[in-house]
Design goal:
CATH topology of the largest domain: TIM Barrel
Distance between the termini: 23 Å
Strand order of the largest sheet: 21-20-24-18-17-16-1-19-23-22
CATH architecture of the largest domain: Alpha-Beta Barrel
Number of domains: 2
Number of helices: 9
Structural class: alpha/beta
Number of strands: 24
Largest sheet: 10 strands, mixed
Helix content: 10-25%
Bound molecules: alpha-L-arabinofuranose
CATH superfamily of the largest domain: Glycosidases
CATH class of the largest domain: Alpha Beta
Amino acid sequence: MEKYLINPNQKLASVSRDIYGAFSEHLGRCIYEGVYVGEDSPIPNVNGMRIDVVEALRAIGLPVLRWPGGCFADEYHWKDGIGPKASRKKMINTHWGGVVEDNSFGTHEFFELCRQLGCDAYVTGNLGSGTVQEMSEWVEYMTFEGVSPMADLRTRNGHEKPWRLKYFGVGNENWGCGGNMTADFYADQYRRYATYVRNYDYKNRVQKVACGPSGGDYNWTDVLMKKAGRAMDGLSLHYYTVTGDWAHKGKALEFTDEQYYTTLEKAYVMEELVHRHDAVMDRYDPEKRVGLVVDEWGTWHDVEEGTNPGFLYQQNAMRDAIVAGLTLNIFNKHCDRVKMANIAQTINVLQAVALTDGEQMLLTPTYFVFKLFRDHQDNTLLGSYITSKNLSEKGKLPHLTESASIKEDGTIVSTVVNTSLTETADVLCQIADREVTDVEAEILTGEAHAHNSFEEPGQVASTAFADVTRTPDGFRATIPPCSVVKFLVK
Ligand code: AHR
């Protein structure tokens, strides 16, 4: 029997809803086909946005969407994507698949998508190959209300009012595809570019996110915090879970038990990364004003056979769902520092929450994890602990992970992940100073390879969970292998 203790008297920090954000790049079929099909498409749409996809994302309460990249961002010139569509520049998306980018999805379309989704906007600017003026003018175009060249241009393009821009990224992966810069060079560039990312409206303060490290590059974090920490609101972190190596990553649906555990061990490295980057940031920002923004995370497998290698299209199984559950519990536990995260990517690319094929759309196992975790959004994290053995021989992989938060009405939300392929977990949960009157639970479980396909889209979905019994101060539950469970306790 594993013991699970939750302490409602220990209120730790706010679980920002933005931890549950997603990333959408001009890459493969993420934007085009995945979200945007154009106004004249036979696929049901509103102003060009697929109705099925918008409804699915609304149902998980997607709080924030990052756009337009990724590596694409540091080659993107925003003025190519405004004005009459017929006269927008056509170009080659050199980074992703060498296909024609017709710029029919640009700034206005992105904000229309956010409007339909009811989510906040996170736009990443071009520091790698763009100018300070170009970046500055984009922010002016998006956020300035009044008389100015960019506000006038926006009005002429059909949108008189400025949009609400919550976050602006000053470059992406500038240690790599965003210009191959050193930490020192980028820190100086960041300070320069960010100076002209103006806040025109005190009610619409744009939070500036600096390009952060790749994985365990703690020196990058140190240099950025030292040289530019005071000029940023967030520092990004990118970490992908790759089962094999970058040349042979491994397939999304074909893997051995050993590979399953390797994937999860590698996903669990996120715990160490967040912990150690947080410790470096603490040296310069002990108040934790600057958020760690994990704006690219997820599994990266080999592309599905027969698809364009530059499109990064992969299937998604229960294994990916367990990665998502592990990762989101880590972010919740570190929500005093992790203020936003964006799974890569939203639709049809990498660890997507939905896949499309023409008119069809399916929800992936990962989607249902976001559905279960939605109840944590904007709650207060509680002190909690679960006993659990380590399943890994070489590294770290807890059999069980959890996080617990409390809603304003006093409901406790807990999410527990069972990473084992074979072992059921009997869990006894005790909540300090609480008389429990009701427990409801929902589960996502299945064989590790289980997935949804266009032929069989209903194989994996979350369902009500019955193997839970209320006790005077908590509950007992029998949690099956390879599962994610959400408990709502009153
Ligand atoms: O998400 C795919 C790519 O991964 C992004 O464009 C880039 O930022 C990262 O290397």
